Amino acid sequence: MKKDTVLILDFGAGSNQLTARRVRELGVYSEVMPAGTPAEKIAAANYKGSYSHR
After folding, report:
1. Neighbours of 8 (CB within 10 A)
2. Residue 11 burial (C-beta neighbours within 10 Å; 0-12, 13-18, 19+)
3. CB contact set of 50 (below 8 Å; sequence gap of 6+)
4. What is the pLDDT of residue 51?
5. What are phi and psi of 5, to 5 degrees?
6. What is the mean pLDDT of residues 15-21?
7. pLDDT, mean over the chain
8. Arithmetic mean of pLDDT, 7-26
9. DSSP string computed for 23-52
10. Chain-centre distance for alpha carbon 34
């Protein structure tokens, strides 16, 4: 069974890794990807949610 995953888009703000750690502390798997990640790659991964901070 694949875990539900939340995507965190990195626009260069220093808080992205902190956000990822806090989400993981809540028991939710998260991945950080650069803001320029192709939409097709994001859609294909079937994330349950996303977050970005500029």
Report:
1. 20
2. exposed
3. 6, 7, 8, 9, 42
4. 62
5. -130, 140
6. 87
7. 84
8. 87
9. HHHTT-EEEEEETT--HHHHHHHT-SEEEE
10. 9
